Amino acid sequence: MAVQEMLAGLPWWVKWVAIPALALLVFGGLITSVLTFVVGLLFKVLLFVALVGGLIYVVQKVKGSGRSREEW
Predict the structure, then answer these.
(1) Tens-place pLDDT, residues 29-71
(2) Residues 6 or more apart whose Cβ sits within 8 Å of residue 24
C-alpha cells in the first residue's frame, strides 16, 4: 500500500494540519538545531567577508597615502 493511497481517504485537516504538527513535535529539536547551525554559519561567513573587506580597504588606504607622500 502506497503512501498516496493511505492519505487519499483522510480528511484535508489530517493531511495539512495534524501530520505536519506531529512532524514538528517529533523532529522540532532537530529542525531547530539545524537552523541554528545554518544561521550561525551564515553569520560567521558574513562577518569574515566584512572583516576581510575592511582589511583590504585599510591596506589600500595606507598604501595609497604612502604613494602620495612619495610624489611630494
Answers:
(1) 999 999 999 999 999 999 999 999 999 999 999 988 765 555 5
(2) 31
Backbone angles phi, psi at 22, to 5 degrees: -65, -40
State the Cα–Cα distance between residues 45 and 53, nearest whole angstrom.
12
Domain limits of the chain?
11-71
**What's the CA gap between 62 and 55, in Å, rounded?**
11
* Total residues belonging to the chain: 72
Question: What whole-number distance in Å separates Cα of residue 40 and Cα of residue 20?
Answer: 26
Identity of the residue numbered 25: L
Q: What one-letter code names the amino acid at 59?
A: V
Per-residue confidence band for 6, with pLDDT thresholds at 50, 70 and 90: confident
